[in-house]
Structure formats: C-alpha cells, structure tokens
C-alpha cells in the first residue's frame, strides 16, 4: 500500500510539473518540417557526474540536432522522479518516456532478464560486450516486454560487480560467512550471495551509504564507480575483485511513445540509441580508471580473491539455467568460444 501511495504521489507531482503527458507532442510544425514535435522525459537514479547521465545528456543534444528540433529530451537525474521501480511504472503509465535502470529491475516482467544476474555467465568484458551487441539480444530479448508497455532500446556498461565491505577482506567464499551483504531486490542475486556464504540483505540504493556507516550492513556488491560517485569509499575500505557479474543497465522506453513517431524520427532515434551506448561505454572506461585511483587515495584496499572458489559455489545456478534456457545459454557459450 505504501509503495502505491508513493507512486501516485510521484505521478501527481509530475502532473503538476506539466510533464505527465510523457512524450508530449504538438502539431505545430517547425520551420521547413511537417513532423510533429516531441519532448521526451528521461529518468535516471544516478547523479549528473555519472557516465550514463552524461551520455544521456549528449543523446538529448544529438536527437534535437538530427531531428531539426522535432525531438527534444529532458534528463532528470539523481532519482528526482522516483526510484527505479517507481519510474519504471511511470513509464508503463506513459507519464515519462524513458528510464535508465539496472537490468534486474525488469526481471519481474520477464524471467529472461533474471539470467543477467547469474554470476560468472561471461568469461570477460569482451565476451559480455559481444552478447549485449548481438542480434539475438536485439531481436529476441529487448522486445519481449512489449506487452507490459515498454521495450529495451539500448544497454549501458555497468562494469563488473564485485564485493566490498567496511573492513573485512574477501578472499574466499568462507570470508562472507555471517556478513550482511546488500543486494538488489533480485531473487537471483539473493540466491548468489546465499550460495557464496553471505546473508543477502535487499536495500534501496539511497539507503546504502547510511547502512554501511551505521553497520546495518557489512558490505555489498557493485562496481568501482560506486566507491567514488556514491562516496562509498568513505565508509568501505576493502574491495575484492571477484568480478562475479557483468550485469548491464538498460534504457527502457514506453511502447506508445515509439508508436507516435514517424519512420524518419524512429530511424534518428535508433541511430542515436546506438551512439548513446557506445559513448556511455567510453565514458564508463575513463570513469572507472579514475574511480580506482581516487578510491586508493582514500584508503581503499583492492585485493585479488580466489575466483575459482566463488565460481564453484554457484554451479547449481549454472546447471539450472542451462536446462531452463538452453537457447540463451547456447548463444552465450557460442559467443564465448569465438571470443577465445
């Protein structure tokens, strides 16, 4: 009940702000252009300094230029329009047009997306990139939520997720025993932490810093940028490069928004979505290198754990998904072999 009240409060606020029409349009043609004009609302829970938000703002400039002003976008960062789950529902309502979110946010809409929370699915970053850029993803996976009112149009690098704690080095799975490790509210991620020996503790992202500081949780799993962009290096000093998960962020778009556009506008958007993903990856790589340097300067200790020991703990997950989703796993395996 509380969650629904929060959602409707956010929806009412957006109505008052005058953006609730989502992909608001006007029939007034721009000079020399007979196409309708659209103004997209894009949400992200990341701050303005985050690579994804920076890339989204470049995307907004690009589509305005390429469409000669018939398509514009306003990017709302730092979760001002609500949490990931709240803004996803707002996309379904059509109150906003696009949201950048972690892939696990949409696994409740289709179980295929839960596969990206299976640890050690990819050999390395190159293998991960090949899968995400594959025609299989574009044709078979990204459109599967259309009946829920939205589709994925592109993906963002969210790095490799690893474990980090206040002050406990994690070298073996046994080091996680008894530790309260924050996870997303993903059954797959919670199972992963349990199999590795930790106590999974779902918690909203905005609460993590305080929970670490107060000892409500002992640690979490995320990428290096969280140490600096989200200031976790101030309260977490041990980072273990388990690199157990390459789980992308995705850009979710309201289906009706896309249906309102002309073929020319759709083509411009598709090209811009591709460039958005490429640009974000480059920004991500630079930001990750910088984050590691800054975190070390703040006293964070980076260690190399016994990765094979962690892989061994989650074999039951691999065996199960291979039986349940053979085509997906065969595609991942094939692309991994080409990558060797």
**SSE order in H/E notation?**
HEEHEHEHHEEEHEHEHEEHHEHHH
Low-confidence stretches: 26-31
Strand content: 15-25%
Largest sheet: 6 strands, mixed
**Helical percent range?**
40-55%
- Roughly what is the average pLDDT, rounded to an integer? 91
H/I helix tally: 13
Number of strands: 12
The Rg value, from CA coordinates, equals: 20 Å
Distance between the termini: 50 Å
Label the overall shape: globular
**Which class do the helix and strand fractions yield?**
alpha/beta
Protein described:
With 340 residues, the chain is of the alpha/beta class. The protein is built from 13 helices and 12 strands. It has helices at residues 2-17, 51-66, 84-93, 125-132, 135-141, 187-196, 208-214, 225-228, 255-259, 263-297, 307-313, 315-324, 326-339, and strands spanning 24-26, 37-44, 71-76, 98-102, 150-156, 160-165, 180-183, 199-202, 219-222, 238-246, 249-254, 301-303. The strands form 2 sheets. Strands 1, 2, 3, 4, 5 and 11 form a 6-stranded mixed β-sheet that branches.
Brief write-up:
By secondary structure, the protein is an alpha/beta fold. The protein has helices at residues 2-17, 51-66, 84-93, 125-132, 135-141, 187-196, 208-214, 225-228, 255-259, 263-297, 307-313, 315-324, 326-339, and strands spanning 24-26, 37-44, 71-76, 98-102, 150-156, 160-165, 180-183, 199-202, 219-222, 238-246, 249-254, 301-303.
Provide key terms for this protein.
about 350 residues, alpha/beta, 6-stranded mixed sheet, 12 strands, about 45% helix, about 20% strand
